[in-house]
């Protein structure tokens, strides 16, 4: 029986559960932002990589990035480079991007296409299933079938790609997939193509990036492009006489649209699991304002060719959040996905990917400029806000401040999940 490439074994990192980290976790005050070392300390950052990014399902890309056999993408998570490739049978596979000879990195580009996987150092060659098929000068006793590429756990959730570097990944991914799948499936992300992808580096801790994403308290005063298509009352408001009428009207719109969309076979009701499980997630389909079609500068579709079998342009926006590092917006005409990867205590990669129907023609059905205008502007504004927060956390005057229970509940959910998962890592002694 041929030897199968094994899942890589991770070794515990010495000192990850330091006295500083334990003290910070013990003193975390619910309903408040985190203590400054969570954003500044290299020691905490290393623990983040060990307990969060090496032991949970991390969103890394979309299936349309690798549409054909031999297409690949690479993603770096800390010191680990992961290669995701589509094999000749159209299956997606993930491997450590490391040659089994002397450890050379195999694929150096973020994205490309290949026939076989060839090490640039000594030309050891692997097929698209990770088997070593060629290695010169290794002698008669050398067993190629014991030197295949090391696998990485990979899951494809209706076109959203997740990896896990742990020996045993969290088992609750199946439940998340079962519950989220019906929401995502009608948009048929697998039948899309990548129209644009933009990487930015935020000079801030990854947790500031996620906290900023998990609230829209800041949206009205900072995101004029994004708020064109968003109902203001959808951001979260403290109930009171001053906004009772507007809130009631918004709630009625949501009720009516949900009923219509559910009747069309589009699940819309909120699922809230951000801080109640290992693989945290949340989703809801909400109406969009004005034209109600898409997150564009005029709230109309950015692509004339709609996704899936859609004929109605005004299907609102299906928002999906996954812990620890992603958020997504699914609309009738396109999908926007965001992946957050820590680069250091004060540097974070934010990768934004826009997908449209695979048969849509650029310059005819859509323009990249119009498709990307809202989120290019919003990402740049959020980058500035994250960097302001990072600078503030370094001040001697910084102390954890209270979250609004109305507009920052999802920030608290993120921080609660993060602290719980870090405590679990520390208590396991790994």
From TrEMBL:
Looking up Gene3D superfamilies in the UniProt record yields: Naphthalene 1,2-dioxygenase Alpha Subunit, Chain A, domain 1, Rieske [2Fe-2S] iron-sulphur domain
Q: Tell me the ranges covered by the Rieske domain, including all copies.
A: 57-163
Please tell me whether the keyword S-adenosyl-L-methionine is annotated for this protein: no
The protein's matches in InterPro entries, at most eight in alphabetical order, are given as:
Rieske_2Fe-2S (IPR017941), Rieske_2Fe-2S_sf (IPR036922), Ring_hydroxy_dOase_asu_C_dom (IPR015879), Rng_hydr_dOase-A (IPR001663)
Q: Does the keyword Acetylation apply?
A: no
PANTHER family assigned to the protein according to its UniProt record, in alphabetical order: CHOLINE MONOOXYGENASE, CHLOROPLASTIC
Please state what the protein is called: Aromatic ring-hydroxylating dioxygenase subunit alpha
Source organism per entry reads Caldimonas mangrovi
Q: Taxonomically, what lineage is the organism?
A: Bacteria, Pseudomonadati, Pseudomonadota, Betaproteobacteria, Burkholderiales
């Amino acid at each position: 029986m041929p030897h199968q490439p094994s899942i890589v074994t991770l070794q515990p990192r010495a000192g990850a559960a330091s006295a500083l980290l334990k003290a910070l976790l013990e003193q975390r005050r619910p309903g408040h932002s985190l203590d400054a070392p969570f954003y500044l300390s290299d020691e905490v950052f290393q623990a983040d990589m060990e307990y969060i990014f090496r032991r949970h399902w991390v969103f890394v890309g979309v299936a349309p990035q690798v549409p054909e056999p031999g297409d690949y993408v690479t993603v770096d998570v800390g010191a680990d480079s992961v290669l995701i490739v589509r094999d000749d049978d159209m299956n997606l596979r993930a491997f450590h991007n490391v040659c089994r000879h002397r450890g050379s990195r195999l694929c150096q580009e973020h994205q490309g296409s290949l026939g076989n996987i060839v090490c640039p150092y000594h030309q050891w060659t692997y097929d698209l299933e990770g088997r070593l098929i060629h290695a010169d000068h290794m002698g008669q006793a050398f067993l190629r079938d014991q030197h295949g590429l090391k696998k990485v756990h990979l899951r494809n959730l209706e076109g959203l790609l997740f990896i896990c570097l742990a020996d045993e990944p969290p088992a609750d991914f199946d439940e998340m997939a079962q519950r989220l799948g019906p929401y995502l499936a009608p948009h048929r992300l697998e039948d899309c193509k990548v129209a644009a992808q933009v990487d930015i580096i935020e000079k801030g801790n990854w947790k500031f990036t996620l906290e900023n994403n998990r609230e829209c308290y800041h949206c009205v005063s900072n995101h004029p492009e994004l708020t064109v298509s968003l109902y203001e009352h959808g951001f979260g408001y403290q109930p009171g006489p001053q906004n009772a009428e507007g809130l009631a009207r918004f709630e009625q719109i949501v009720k009516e649209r949900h009923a219509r969309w559910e009747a069309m076979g589009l699940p819309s009701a909120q699922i809230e699991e951000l801080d109640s499980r290992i693989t945290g997630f949340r989703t809801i389909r909400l109406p969009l304002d004005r034209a109600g079609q898409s997150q564009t500068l005029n709230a109309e579709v950015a692509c004339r060719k709609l996704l899936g079998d859609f004929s109605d342009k005004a299907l609102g926006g299906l928002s999906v959040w996954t812990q620890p590092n992603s958020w997504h917006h699914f609309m009738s005409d396109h999908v926007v996905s965001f992946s957050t990867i820590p680069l250091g205590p004060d540097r974070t990669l934010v990768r934004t990917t826009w997908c449209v129907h695979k048969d849509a023609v650029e310059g005819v059905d859509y323009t990249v400029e119009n498709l990307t205008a809202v989120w290019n502007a919003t990402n740049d504004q959020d980058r500035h806000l994250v960097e302001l927060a990072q600078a503030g956390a370094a001040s001697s005057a910084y102390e954890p401040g209270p979250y609004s229970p109305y507009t920052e509940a999802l920030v608290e959910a993120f921080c609660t999940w993060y602290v719980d998962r870090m405590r679990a890592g520390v208590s396991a002694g790994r």
